[in-house]
Amino acid sequence: MLALFKKSAAVSLPAALLFTGLALAHGNVTPQGVNTEGLPPLSGELTENPYRKDQKVYAKAIEIGSSAFNQNCARCHGLGAVSGGIAPDLRNLPAGGEGDEFFQMRIRHGSVRNGVTYMPPFESVFSEQAIWAIRSYLDSVRVDN
Ligand code: HEC
């Protein structure tokens, strides 16, 4: 009984943060550009994460992606990519190239169905480096289920 209580107390704080985030989402939240200094330049619209190949670059990409994610995505997808149930839990994206392709399509174009924007497009906000830094971060928190 005590253990159960502790567990629910632990989840209530992130939930509170998420709702604060949602309140902000209804205001005018300007997407934050991402400083990608330290990452090799990229060109074109890649469909696979180019930063996985080099461990040092990959570590830098994860660090930059973590901050970019928390500034731009966490208000819907949750801090640390742990979804509170409002938007999909991004720790469950498929690994490797399969997940990359879906991820880059979604982050560029967002999700609009029947005229309703579920997720805004980030194509005009992020550089190619920023997109793959965020993907690298999501790799680092991925869980199998
Ligand atoms: C305004 C809220 C909002 C923001 C901000 C947002 N998303 Fe989303 N995202 C959603 C919703 C809602 C969905 C589900 C869309 C659907 O069902 O069509 C989604 C879906 C996704 C998916 C597909 C997941 C799946 O399993 O289907 C990915 C990948 C994704 N978002 C990445 C991101 C990233 C990366 C960012 C930050 C750059 C971001 N999102 C910012 C609301 C948001």
From TrEMBL:
Keywords: Electron transport, Heme, Iron, Metal-binding, Signal, Transport. PANTHER family: CYTOCHROME C-553-LIKE, MENAQUINOL-CYTOCHROME C REDUCTASE CYTOCHROME B_C SUBUNIT. This is Cytochrome c-550 PedF. Residues 60-142 form the Cytochrome c domain. Residues 1-25 form the signal peptide. It holds the Pfam family Cytochrome_CBB3. PROSITE patterns: CYTC (PS51007). GO terms for molecular function: electron transfer activity; heme binding; metal ion binding.
